[in-house]
Amino acid sequence: MLIDSHAHLDSHRYHDDREAMLRRAQEAGVGAVLSIGIGEGPAEMHQARDLCRQYNGQPGMPRLYASAGIYPHSTTEADHAALVKLDQLLADPDVIACGEIGLDYYHQGAPHDVQRDGLIRQLEIAASRKRPILIHCRPKDNTTDAWDDLFAVLEEHWARTALGGIMHCFGGTWEQARRSLDLGFLISFAGNITYPKAQPLRDVAAHVPLDSVLVETDAPWLAPEANRGKRNEPALMVETAQVLAGLHGISKDEIAAATTKNFYRLFPHISPNGGA
Questions:
Q1: pLDDT interval class at 108 (50, 70, 90)
Q2: Neighbouring residues of 158: CB distance < 8 A, sequence distance ≥ 6
Q3: CA distance 209 to 224
Q4: Does domain 2-266 have CATH number 3.20.20.140?
Q5: In angstroms, rounded to a whole number, what is the distance separating the alpha carbons of residues 134 and 74?
Q6: DSSP three-state, residue 172
Q7: C-alpha distances in angstroms, 254 versus 222, 242, 250?
Q8: Which segments of 188-250 does DSSP mark as H helices, in order?
Q9: pLDDT tens per residue across span 204-225
Q10: What residues contact 41, with CB distance under 8 A and at least 6 apart?
């Protein structure tokens, strides 16, 4: 069984075929999906949780889990009401992680100090609810600015919790991967690892210990090479898993087993058999 550790299932791009898309995932061997609860802002954080309530228990569907969080560029909306909503969502058994949260200095958006403050406040809530975190980190081109600030925040405000988390859609260097591992994070790779020009990223993935890797889609974005430019969905993660398996010199079934084991180790309160 494969687990898609990061997919935006509430995207409007699935409006017309969400149920069929989920059935395709199950048919492709994807047994569970972590549905990311950021929406288009805090007002939509609950949508991923609502999908769990809608689809879990239906035959022929992967088990859905949810996260909730305020994306870096939505931290301008991280007011008291939004943070209370986040805290309430993280108390829900289906909401197993806080995220995706972090820092994004690549796009024009929320000021950097607002992003950092929003991240710290969410780390405090996640710690109080004992939920691992899902980190988004994207620096400006040819810089390490966001990574440097991220590690400073995590070392001061998160490391002591020992709750760990996931470096989602990892795109950094081996040094940044190593520091992530030192902080207890799993490192998740998406469809961009299959792209011809992604050899530096594949080199990093090959060095990450097998007990610290996950695989994801980041759907509806970053479809693997065979479907590049099209809408991504969990069923397509098989190609990404195959590439990751090859980098570690193992079979696709072995990478599926390893990444599934890693996922449930990070979230020990949920059952591999579907219960929470």
A1: confident
A2: 123, 127, 133, 165, 183
A3: 22
A4: yes
A5: 15
A6: coil
A7: 23, 10, 6
A8: 199-207, 237-247
A9: 999 999 999 999 999 999 999 9
A10: 70, 71, 74, 77
Examine residue 156 and say whether the peptide bond preceding it is cis (omega within 30 degrees of 0). Answer: no
pLDDT digits (tens, 9 = 90+) for 120-132: 999 999 999 999 9
The pair of three-digit structure tokens given for residue 214, joined into one six-digit string: 């996950």
Quote the CA–CA distance of 85 and 90 in Å, as a whole number.
9
Q: With bands split at pLDDT 50, 70 and 90, how would you rate the model's confidence at 228?
A: very high
pLDDT digits (tens, 9 = 90+) for 54-83: 999 999 999 999 999 999 999 999 999 999
Buried b (16+ CB within 10 A) or exposed e, 143-169: eeebbebbbebbeebbeebebbbbbbb
Task: Please state whether the predicted TM-score (pTM) of the whole model is above 0.90.
Answer: yes
